[in-house]
Amino acid sequence: MAKAPETDARPGQHSGPRHVAIIMDGNGRWAQAKGRPRLFGHHAGARRVREVVEACPSLGVKYLTIFAFSTENWKRTQVEVAGLMSLFRRYIAKETRALAARDVRVRFIGDRVRLDRKLTDLMDRMELETAVNDGVNLTIALNYGGRDEVARATQRLAMDVAKGTLDPADIDEETLPKYLDTHVLPDPDLVIRTSGEARISNFLLWQSAYAEYEFIDTLWPDFTAEELGRLCASYGAKDRRFGAVKT
Ligand code: IPE
Ligand code: IPE
Ligand code: MG
Protein backbone atom coordinates (compact mmCIF):
# COMPACT_ATOMS: atom_id res chain seq x y z
CA MET A 1 0.00 0.00 0.00
CA ALA A 2 1.25 3.53 -0.82
CA LYS A 3 2.99 5.35 1.97
CA ALA A 4 1.18 8.49 3.17
CA PRO A 5 3.04 11.72 2.41
CA GLU A 6 4.50 13.59 5.36
CA THR A 7 2.14 15.86 7.27
CA ASP A 8 2.68 19.33 8.62
CA ALA A 9 3.28 17.72 12.00
CA ARG A 10 6.15 19.89 13.20
CA PRO A 11 5.37 21.75 16.42
CA GLY A 12 5.45 25.50 15.91
CA GLN A 13 6.93 25.49 12.37
CA HIS A 14 4.40 26.10 9.65
CA SER A 15 2.96 28.89 7.58
CA GLY A 16 -0.17 28.11 5.62
CA PRO A 17 -2.08 24.81 5.77
CA ARG A 18 -0.96 22.19 3.28
CA HIS A 19 -4.21 20.23 3.56
CA VAL A 20 -7.54 22.05 3.98
CA ALA A 21 -10.75 20.05 4.47
CA ILE A 22 -14.14 21.73 4.16
CA ILE A 23 -17.59 20.71 5.43
CA MET A 24 -19.62 22.58 2.82
CA ASP A 25 -22.76 23.25 4.85
CA GLY A 26 -25.68 25.65 4.55
CA ASN A 27 -26.92 25.16 0.96
CA GLY A 28 -30.48 24.43 2.10
CA ARG A 29 -30.73 27.48 4.38
CA TRP A 30 -29.20 29.69 1.69
CA ALA A 31 -31.93 28.62 -0.75
CA GLN A 32 -34.72 28.81 1.83
CA ALA A 33 -33.73 32.40 2.68
CA LYS A 34 -34.32 33.22 -0.98
CA GLY A 35 -37.64 31.38 -1.04
CA ARG A 36 -36.21 28.74 -3.38
CA PRO A 37 -36.11 24.92 -3.13
CA ARG A 38 -33.15 23.29 -1.35
CA LEU A 39 -31.75 21.93 -4.61
CA PHE A 40 -31.31 25.48 -5.89
CA GLY A 41 -28.88 25.91 -2.99
CA HIS A 42 -27.03 22.69 -3.83
CA HIS A 43 -26.51 23.88 -7.42
CA ALA A 44 -25.20 27.25 -6.20
CA GLY A 45 -22.94 25.40 -3.76
CA ALA A 46 -21.45 23.19 -6.48
CA ARG A 47 -20.62 26.30 -8.51
CA ARG A 48 -18.52 27.66 -5.60
CA VAL A 49 -16.10 24.74 -5.70
CA ARG A 50 -14.17 25.86 -8.78
CA GLU A 51 -13.17 29.27 -7.36
CA VAL A 52 -12.04 27.64 -4.11
CA VAL A 53 -9.94 25.02 -5.94
CA GLU A 54 -8.38 27.71 -8.13
CA ALA A 55 -7.33 29.72 -5.07
CA CYS A 56 -5.35 26.81 -3.60
CA PRO A 57 -2.01 27.08 -5.47
CA SER A 58 -1.38 30.71 -4.49
CA LEU A 59 -2.24 29.88 -0.86
CA GLY A 60 0.16 26.93 -0.79
CA VAL A 61 -2.73 24.49 -0.31
CA LYS A 62 -1.66 21.26 -1.97
CA TYR A 63 -4.59 19.12 -0.73
CA LEU A 64 -8.23 20.18 -0.62
CA THR A 65 -10.84 17.73 0.66
CA ILE A 66 -14.53 18.60 0.41
CA PHE A 67 -17.52 16.90 2.06
CA ALA A 68 -20.21 16.55 -0.60
CA PHE A 69 -22.53 13.83 0.76
CA SER A 70 -22.43 11.94 4.05
CA THR A 71 -23.49 8.39 4.85
CA GLU A 72 -26.25 10.04 6.91
CA ASN A 73 -27.54 12.24 4.08
CA TRP A 74 -29.58 9.29 2.68
CA LYS A 75 -32.07 10.16 5.45
CA ARG A 76 -33.21 13.19 3.42
CA THR A 77 -36.27 13.15 1.16
CA GLN A 78 -36.11 11.03 -1.96
CA VAL A 79 -36.44 14.20 -4.05
CA GLU A 80 -33.40 15.83 -2.42
CA VAL A 81 -31.26 12.67 -2.57
CA ALA A 82 -32.13 12.05 -6.23
CA GLY A 83 -31.48 15.72 -7.03
CA LEU A 84 -28.08 15.58 -5.35
CA MET A 85 -27.10 12.37 -7.19
CA SER A 86 -28.10 13.94 -10.49
CA LEU A 87 -26.13 17.08 -9.58
CA PHE A 88 -23.02 14.96 -8.84
CA ARG A 89 -23.32 13.24 -12.23
CA ARG A 90 -23.67 16.56 -14.04
CA TYR A 91 -20.89 18.18 -12.02
CA ILE A 92 -18.41 15.41 -12.82
CA ALA A 93 -19.31 15.31 -16.51
CA LYS A 94 -18.98 19.09 -16.75
CA GLU A 95 -15.96 19.78 -14.54
CA THR A 96 -13.53 16.98 -15.45
CA ARG A 97 -11.95 18.86 -18.34
CA ALA A 98 -11.76 22.22 -16.52
CA LEU A 99 -10.11 20.67 -13.47
CA ALA A 100 -7.70 18.64 -15.58
CA ALA A 101 -6.67 21.81 -17.44
CA ARG A 102 -5.79 23.40 -14.08
CA ASP A 103 -3.52 20.51 -13.11
CA VAL A 104 -5.99 19.25 -10.47
CA ARG A 105 -5.93 15.59 -9.49
CA VAL A 106 -9.31 14.37 -8.31
CA ARG A 107 -9.92 11.48 -5.93
CA PHE A 108 -13.09 10.26 -4.25
CA ILE A 109 -13.41 8.87 -0.75
CA GLY A 110 -16.43 7.13 0.76
CA ASP A 111 -18.29 3.91 0.13
CA ARG A 112 -19.17 3.47 -3.54
CA VAL A 113 -21.31 0.38 -2.99
CA ARG A 114 -24.53 2.34 -2.44
CA LEU A 115 -23.94 4.70 -5.40
CA ASP A 116 -25.43 3.94 -8.80
CA ARG A 117 -23.26 2.54 -11.57
CA LYS A 118 -23.60 5.57 -13.84
CA LEU A 119 -22.20 7.78 -11.11
CA THR A 120 -19.36 5.46 -10.10
CA ASP A 121 -18.33 5.11 -13.76
CA LEU A 122 -18.08 8.90 -14.00
CA MET A 123 -16.10 8.99 -10.74
CA ASP A 124 -13.68 6.36 -12.04
CA ARG A 125 -13.23 8.28 -15.27
CA MET A 126 -12.62 11.57 -13.49
CA GLU A 127 -9.96 9.94 -11.30
CA LEU A 128 -8.33 8.33 -14.30
CA GLU A 129 -8.38 11.41 -16.51
CA THR A 130 -6.81 13.59 -13.81
CA ALA A 131 -4.37 10.99 -12.46
CA VAL A 132 -1.33 12.50 -14.21
CA ASN A 133 -1.86 15.93 -12.62
CA ASP A 134 0.13 17.01 -9.62
CA GLY A 135 -0.99 20.57 -8.90
CA VAL A 136 -3.84 20.56 -6.40
CA ASN A 137 -5.09 17.24 -4.97
CA LEU A 138 -8.87 17.58 -4.76
CA THR A 139 -10.59 14.84 -2.77
CA ILE A 140 -14.37 14.65 -2.89
CA ALA A 141 -16.04 12.83 0.01
CA LEU A 142 -19.16 11.23 -1.46
CA ASN A 143 -21.22 8.79 0.59
CA TYR A 144 -18.49 9.29 3.17
CA GLY A 145 -18.75 8.78 6.92
CA GLY A 146 -15.79 8.65 9.28
CA ARG A 147 -17.23 5.76 11.31
CA ASP A 148 -18.16 3.85 8.16
CA GLU A 149 -14.63 4.37 6.82
CA VAL A 150 -13.04 3.03 10.03
CA ALA A 151 -15.42 0.03 9.97
CA ARG A 152 -14.58 -0.77 6.33
CA ALA A 153 -10.86 -0.34 7.07
CA THR A 154 -11.12 -2.69 10.03
CA GLN A 155 -12.81 -5.29 7.84
CA ARG A 156 -9.91 -5.20 5.37
CA LEU A 157 -7.37 -5.26 8.18
CA ALA A 158 -9.09 -8.29 9.75
CA MET A 159 -9.01 -10.03 6.36
CA ASP A 160 -5.22 -9.55 6.21
CA VAL A 161 -4.94 -11.02 9.72
CA ALA A 162 -7.08 -13.98 8.66
CA LYS A 163 -4.89 -14.49 5.56
CA GLY A 164 -1.80 -14.39 7.74
CA THR A 165 -0.24 -11.34 6.02
CA LEU A 166 -0.69 -9.13 9.10
CA ASP A 167 0.36 -10.01 12.65
CA PRO A 168 -2.04 -8.51 15.25
CA ALA A 169 0.98 -7.72 17.42
CA ASP A 170 2.25 -5.37 14.69
CA ILE A 171 -0.92 -3.23 14.60
CA ASP A 172 -0.16 0.29 15.78
CA GLU A 173 -1.36 3.78 14.88
CA GLU A 174 0.61 3.69 11.64
CA THR A 175 -1.19 0.52 10.52
CA LEU A 176 -4.88 1.52 10.54
CA PRO A 177 -4.53 4.69 8.38
CA LYS A 178 -3.02 2.53 5.63
CA TYR A 179 -6.44 0.88 5.33
CA LEU A 180 -8.45 4.12 5.33
CA ASP A 181 -9.83 5.66 2.11
CA THR A 182 -7.41 8.55 2.69
CA HIS A 183 -4.28 6.36 2.79
CA VAL A 184 -2.46 8.42 0.15
CA LEU A 185 -3.31 11.79 1.74
CA PRO A 186 -1.64 13.64 4.61
CA ASP A 187 -3.85 14.48 7.60
CA PRO A 188 -5.81 17.73 7.28
CA ASP A 189 -4.14 20.74 8.89
CA LEU A 190 -7.23 22.95 8.81
CA VAL A 191 -10.89 21.85 8.84
CA ILE A 192 -13.43 24.54 7.93
CA ARG A 193 -17.18 24.22 8.46
CA THR A 194 -19.50 26.82 7.01
CA SER A 195 -23.07 27.69 8.13
CA GLY A 196 -22.52 28.33 11.83
CA GLU A 197 -22.75 24.73 13.08
CA ALA A 198 -19.88 23.76 15.38
CA ARG A 199 -19.86 20.00 14.79
CA ILE A 200 -17.96 17.65 12.52
CA SER A 201 -20.86 15.41 11.48
CA ASN A 202 -18.76 12.27 11.00
CA PHE A 203 -16.10 13.89 8.76
CA LEU A 204 -12.48 12.60 8.79
CA LEU A 205 -12.69 11.42 12.40
CA TRP A 206 -9.35 9.62 12.59
CA GLN A 207 -7.48 12.04 10.33
CA SER A 208 -8.49 15.27 12.12
CA ALA A 209 -7.14 14.31 15.56
CA TYR A 210 -4.77 17.30 15.51
CA ALA A 211 -6.39 19.55 12.90
CA GLU A 212 -7.17 23.19 13.58
CA TYR A 213 -10.91 23.93 13.25
CA GLU A 214 -12.67 27.01 11.91
CA PHE A 215 -16.43 27.22 12.25
CA ILE A 216 -17.70 30.20 10.28
CA ASP A 217 -21.19 31.64 9.81
CA THR A 218 -21.01 32.04 6.02
CA LEU A 219 -23.37 29.69 4.19
CA TRP A 220 -21.46 27.56 1.67
CA PRO A 221 -22.91 29.21 -1.52
CA ASP A 222 -21.56 32.57 -0.22
CA PHE A 223 -18.05 31.24 0.55
CA THR A 224 -15.27 32.89 -1.48
CA ALA A 225 -11.58 32.46 -2.26
CA GLU A 226 -10.99 35.62 -0.26
CA GLU A 227 -12.48 34.03 2.85
CA LEU A 228 -10.34 30.94 2.35
CA GLY A 229 -7.30 33.23 2.16
CA ARG A 230 -8.24 34.88 5.44
CA LEU A 231 -8.70 31.51 7.19
CA CYS A 232 -5.37 30.24 5.84
CA ALA A 233 -3.65 33.38 7.15
CA SER A 234 -5.13 32.98 10.63
CA TYR A 235 -4.10 29.31 10.59
CA GLY A 236 -0.52 30.51 10.00
CA ALA A 237 -0.62 32.48 13.23
CA LYS A 238 -1.56 29.47 15.39
CA ASP A 239 0.86 27.54 17.53
CA ARG A 240 0.39 23.84 16.78
CA ARG A 241 1.99 21.98 19.65
CA PHE A 242 0.91 18.37 18.96
CA GLY A 243 1.05 17.68 22.67
CA ALA A 244 4.60 18.95 23.07
CA VAL A 245 5.85 21.93 25.05
CA LYS A 246 7.62 24.64 23.06
CA THR A 247 11.32 24.76 23.85
C1 IPE B 1 -24.77 20.93 2.74
O1 IPE B 1 -25.87 21.79 2.82
C2 IPE B 1 -24.85 19.99 1.57
C3 IPE B 1 -25.16 18.59 1.92
C4 IPE B 1 -25.24 18.12 3.14
C5 IPE B 1 -25.41 17.68 0.82
P1 IPE B 1 -27.20 21.35 3.56
O2 IPE B 1 -28.12 20.71 2.57
O3 IPE B 1 -26.92 20.54 4.76
O4 IPE B 1 -27.78 22.78 3.98
P2 IPE B 1 -28.51 23.12 5.35
O5 IPE B 1 -27.59 22.71 6.46
O6 IPE B 1 -29.80 22.36 5.37
O7 IPE B 1 -28.70 24.61 5.27
C1 IPE C 1 -22.54 17.52 6.78
O1 IPE C 1 -23.62 18.39 6.73
C2 IPE C 1 -22.41 16.76 5.50
C3 IPE C 1 -22.02 17.53 4.34
C4 IPE C 1 -21.68 18.81 4.31
C5 IPE C 1 -21.98 16.79 3.10
P1 IPE C 1 -25.05 17.98 7.29
O2 IPE C 1 -25.94 19.15 7.04
O3 IPE C 1 -25.48 16.68 6.72
O4 IPE C 1 -24.78 17.79 8.84
P2 IPE C 1 -25.77 17.86 10.07
O5 IPE C 1 -26.95 16.99 9.75
O6 IPE C 1 -26.18 19.30 10.23
O7 IPE C 1 -24.97 17.38 11.23
MG1 MG D 1 -26.57 20.98 6.68
Fold and architecture overview:
The chain is α/β, with parallel strands linked by helices. It has a single domain (19-145, 187-235), classed as Decaprenyl diphosphate synthase-like (Undecaprenyl pyrophosphate synthetase, 3-Layer(aba) Sandwich), CATH 3.40.1180. It contains six helices and six strands. It has helices spanning 27-33, 38-59, 78-101, 117-129, 146-163, 225-236; strands spanning 19-23, 63-70, 104-109, 136-144, 190-193, 212-215. Strands 3-4-2-1-5-6 form a six-stranded parallel sheet, with helices on both faces. Helix 1 (27-33) crosses helix 2 (38-59) and helix 2 (38-59) packs across helix 6 (225-236). The longest helix has 24 residues, at 78-101. The radius of gyration is 18 Å and the shape is globular. One 3-methylbut-3-enyl trihydrogen diphosphate (IPE) binds next to helix 1.
Order of helices and strands: EHHEHEHEHEEH
Q: What is the helix tally?
A: 6
Task: Spell out which ligands are present.
Answer: 3-methylbut-3-enyl trihydrogen diphosphate, magnesium ion
The shape, in one word, is globular
CATH topology: Undecaprenyl pyrophosphate synthetase
